[in-house]
Design goal:
The protein has 392 residues and is α/β, with parallel strands linked by helices. It contains 18 helices and eleven strands. The strands form three sheets. It has a six-stranded parallel beta sheet, with helices on both faces. Helix 1 links the parallel strand 1 and strand 2. Helix 1 crosses helix 8 and helix 17 runs antiparallel to helix 18. The longest helix is centred in the middle third of the chain and has 21 residues. 32% of the residues are buried.
């Protein structure tokens, strides 16, 4: 596998760090998950009917070790692991690692080529560095919430850990970029990655800063429309089901007009170009909406897809599981770590020649503590430290 031989020390909690290290683990990295003694990662508490669904999804292929970083022996174990790891990931508040005696200098003294990733809400510098920064607050601060929702409705937050997932994915890219340099250059001298939740979230919002500078106007909520192309929206059909439709190119818009039996709209001055369609988007949506409301979704989709229009059903997970598409792409697999065989997503992205794979299920708390201690300690140290852990 592409990352065979890479060892990652994961001190993070919650989603962003687990997403980052999960991506690395899926492609072969040995991820050693350091968990708080007796408590573990917070993700373990996010359960559905008693099943740790988040933990199972984002901690497969990892090894779990319980440590108490306030204990001198445990901190020494951690530093010995740093010596043997290529990457160290944490998500403590800026300054907390220093208070634990685990500053960047302390880590780099043990391993001068370490790649250290600090994950925080706002970054380790700047006026907000000491503020709490869970993804919810970041999603609101990035501009996403202000632009999500109907024009006459309130701002809306996404229904999931978007900021964390996006930040973790950016972080995995940064780590692999550093690893590429580390293994190709004798002169690599370590790297510190300051990964905030805010900046990746802001970046995926696109050119909102440039647009604001040019127009002097903050974008308003416009529901499922976009400001760059029309038509683009969700529409209700006669049977109460919904479709999503995008006509982002001129050719696609013309296909839409043909599919709904209104080819004359192609030459209509209101809709003959993208700029004109944006100016008359309300009228355009009313025409399209009326057509869809008069026809069942399957009829609509059949006509649109016959002309290769970019349209599809608005579906739920109930529609997706067991669908031909999911089966044909093998998007899901089952965690064999419990009697229920919890569904989890398979490894992505898909590589033809060097695919990632799920080698092991998400570990129980401290499952690999003895195993990892044996790698870095003498036998008598292992038993002494384990006896302290058992007492806790």
């Amino acid at each position: 596998m592409l990352l065979d031989g890479v060892r990652v020390l994961d001190l993070s909690r919650l989603v962003a760090g687990n997403q980052l290290t999960s991506l690395l683990a899926d492609f072969g990295a040995d991820v050693i998950k350091i968990e708080r003694l007796g408590i573990g990662d917070t993700l373990r508490n996010w359960r559905v009917r008693g099943v740790e669904t988040h933990w199972k999804a984002y901690s497969r292929n990892k090894r779990s070790v319980e440590l108490d970083l306030r204990h001198p022996d445990h901190k020494e174990i951690l530093l010995r692991l740093v010596e043997r790891c290529d990457v160290v990931v944490d998500s403590f508040k800026p300054g907390d690692m220093e208070r634990f005696g685990l500053s960047d200098n302390a880590l780099l003294t043990r391993n001068p080529k370490a790649i250290i990733v600090h994950i925080s809400g706002w970054g380790s510098t700047g006026s907000r560095s000491n503020m709490p920064g869970f993804g919810t607050v970041v999603e609101a601060a990035s501009g996403l919430a202000s632009r999500t929702g109907e024009a006459d409705g309130p701002p809306q937050l996404p229904p999931g850990s978007f900021a964390d997932m996006i930040s973790g994915t950016y972080g995995a890219f940064a780590v692999t970029a550093c690893l590429a340099r580390r293994f190709s250059s004798e002169g690599f001298c370590g790297e510190i990655i300051d990964l905030s939740l805010f900046e990746p979230m802001f970046a995926i919002m696109g050119p909102q800063a440039a647009d604001f500078e040019l127009t002097g106007e903050a974008p308003k909520r416009i529901g499922s429309r976009i400001t760059s192309a029309a038509p683009r929206n969700v529409y209700k059909c006669a049977d109460g089901l919904w479709i999503a439709l995008s006509g982002s190119t001129q050719a696609m818009s013309e296909r839409i007009f043909t599919a709904i039996g209104r080819p004359e709209l192609i030459e209509d001055p209101r809709f003959s170009s993208n700029n004109q369609r944006l100016k008359h988007v309300q009228e355009l949506d009313e025409i399209l909406g009326s057509y869809f409301l008069e026809n069942p979704r399957e009829v609509v989709l059949s006509k649109l897809q016959a002309l290769q229009v970019t349209a599809g059903a608005v579906t739920t997970i109930a529609d997706l599981i067991g669908s031909d598409f999911f089966e044909s792409r093998q998007i899901l697999c089952r965690d064999s770590g419990d009697e229920t065989g919890t569904l989890i997503h398979d490894v992505i992205p898909r590589l033809r020649n060097n695919p990632g794979r799920i080698r092991s299920v998400a570990p129980s708390l401290g499952e690999h503590t003895r195993e990892i201690l044996a790698e870095v300690c003498f036998d008598q140290e292992v038993e002494r430290i384990l006896s302290h852990i058992d007492q806790e």
